[in-house]
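Inputs:
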Amino acid sequence: MDGKVLGQRVPRLEDPGLLLGKGRYTDDVRLPGTANAAFVRSPFPHAILKSIDKNAAMDVEGVIAVYDFSDLRPHMTQDKLPVEFPSGVPNAENAGPAILVKDETMYAGECVAIVIAETRHIAEDAAALVFGEWEPLPAAGDCKEALEPDAPSAHRDTNNNLMMEMVQEYGDVDNVFSSAPHTFREEIWQHRGTAHPIECRGAVGRYDPVSDQITLWSSTQMPNLAQSYIIRVLGLHENQVRVITPDVGGGFGPKFLFYSEELVVALAAKLVGRPVKWAEDRREHFLAAVQERDQYWEAEIALSNDGLVLGVRGHVIHDHGAYTAQGITLPYNAASTIPGPYKVPNYRMKQSLVFTNKVPCAPVRGASHPQGTYVMERLMDRAAKELGVDRAELRDRNMIRGTEMPYKKPLKTRAGVNIEYDSGDFPKAMKMALDGCDYYGFKDRQRNSRADGRFSGIGLSLGVKGTGRGPFEMATVRIGPSGKISVYTGAAPMGQSTRTMMAQVVAEHLGGDMQNVEVVAGDTQPIPMGMGGFGSRQAITAGSSAHIAAKEVRKKALKVAAHMLETSEEDLEIRGIEIFVRGTDMKVSLGQVANAVAGTPGYALPGGVEPGMESTQRFLTDPLAYCYSAHCCEVEVDPETGGVEFKRYVIVHDSGNLMNPMIVEGQIQGGAAHGVGNALFEWMAYDKEAQPLTTNFGEYLLPTAPEMPGFDVSFLESPSPLNPLGVKGVGEGSTVPVAAAVCSAIENALEPFGVHISEAPITPQRIVELIASANPV
Amino acid sequence: MGETRNISVTINGKTYQEEVEVRFHLADFIRQQLGLTGTHLGCEHGVCGACTILLNGESARSCLLLAVQADGQEILTIEGIAPSEDELHPLQEAFRDNHGLQCGFCTPGMLTTLLEFLKDNPDPTEEEVRIAISGNLCRCTGYQGIVAAALDAAERLRNQNVNQIQ
């Protein structure tokens, strides 16, 4: 992209405020008379709540109210939260998370009651004095063990933890396996973690009795959906609920859910008649924000003598958690990702979704694409080793070629749309990544390092990720009589530079001055429709809507200006905030043309145009635009400590046209860093009884600066034919192949020890254990 | 209100005489009582570093200090870094120009930590920068933009000092 501002490394509109400490996040919303909330949470992963005694808490000075389920139920239309994306979910009406525990708790940390007090400190003191009489029940911990015949039930009213099974398949896979010359089987485990935005969740509720309206400020990725859920559960009219999303300190998936805390805070504000604030602390985030990635896989690959993949089949046991927070997205994504960049002519993957007594699972950056990619790439490494073929060579033989794009896979997305790769060149990207890492010169480096007693390895992977989940995200572009341009969008900023992106798109057509553009997002009052931030979608959906709207407004502005300046539209150009007759100093301002169509009582509009200098667009898109990321990394592993050090990390990424290379690079680096966490560090531990063990940042490790490689990022730009900007999403694509590439490199480094890696994360302890078990004394 | 003390704290050059609950940590005092919400809380157990402020010029976790411990001390928060209302500090400029922030939540702690570090080490290596911010978590950037910003800021600050001397 080579526009005036679009495609350029323009500075972000968000930065000056954030750098001066003028950001306003949810906990920074300070309303007069605000009371503070703390939640009483279940201490047990699975137990019956026989009774609850609130008296001691109520007696604490400064406590305003304590509400449990029975107090709130009369104000609600249903017991549970609605299920997000309910299609295909059995008994979807009743499958959602509890709002407050009614009589049975399903995971430790579940909300039981809310305490509202003058200060947060008092609320927390009092929360400790809410006494529940609990009868603990056996809990379903590990999702594989939960499928055993005598396993404890996660829900007492069922005797089977299998929520449902799904199969994705095509071709005649069993026939192929019975005749294939080579088949290899892997058992792979991938473990849970969560996103951990540095800002935890939070909500501020306010009720205005004059307008009979609830306003909720929430750190969410989905303000409009949150509004619709509040309306539904509280039985209100659309005009009675407004949700505002102030600055959001990171989302990465788990804030794309509507949580019980948000609903309860909104309702409590109405009941106590004061604003109520809840700022989640990190321990609560560990206990109650959604997590994912616990999956056990059995996967087999069949190959010809030439190393061509004939088929892949297998089974995944997927930890669904205690409730259905968000449909069946995760196992579906994982299974449909497996064939990835390769031609896999026959395929079957069975998925078993299993209830456990753990926090519900829902997407974290990558949404199970990393797991699917990990499995396929581990199979590729295994096959390469067994067949004596170079890992890169085996991949290249099986990759879809650039000349075959668009390439239709015999699979559908969870929404029933065909999976068709829209553009790109996987082999070229992989080759660029290999060359960037000097893959073919590595054997010499490895020999030398081994001679020095160091163990270096190189790994590679390519991940594909569907982006731009439709059907639309609206945008309104409006020039006001002030001459300022406003953009309203249902897109939800959470740190991805959404405001800058939208301003670039609009300014490109309307004078090129981004300072003249204000982007309004995250407020349901001026923005009636919106789905929000998930699935790497907003540049495609909201960006395209803004692009089309800005072009419409431009056309209209030029028409009115031509009328005012008595010239033709072709002779006009917009520069900054003015419209000039080309080559002259004759001009009108954007404000004047907007004013001209704002209407003067009794006078006709100039040029016979419609009133208002604005356009609202909802660009519709159903098929996904597929971005992909080719990674090659070199590591050095210390067999004594299990420590892994990155020597190089090269990424070649293709997200179509780049709207702002600086921002895209930032997304790619950050996404890859998240992948490194999943590959090496992040381990959400539970005991056998599903009691969480890692509930602070001392026990659960996020990547810090010294461990991170400097990612060497470069781009291919294969424009997507699916949207007018030719862009693809960038938020998640670079997370997808990281664990696969890193574990490939570690296994390569530890070749002399015969270590085989089939799990992620692979922590230093595990590396030491694997070396020991492969080399018994 | 629980037990309180009267304290006097100078923050960003302004002195505050306040009655504060003894159990308030410094971050709560700064954010809730004084309304300086630029300092952020990401974990409240001293790991994430978002709440880092400069206490008498030295970086400190404001979630791990009680407000009463700041009595008589001088504090700098993110709101006090820029030289004026409409001007960014060279470190802030470098963060903007090197995409050293995305969501902005870790930024206050990154800026204060690096302000102290660059004063002590005006010409650091990349590795030294990475170690300097090893106590600050960022989930957006992978640290790369932050490291680039710190190295760029070091150069800007060195040039500024040279210009001032000349």
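Chain B has a mean pLDDT of 97. Flag for discussion at group meeting.
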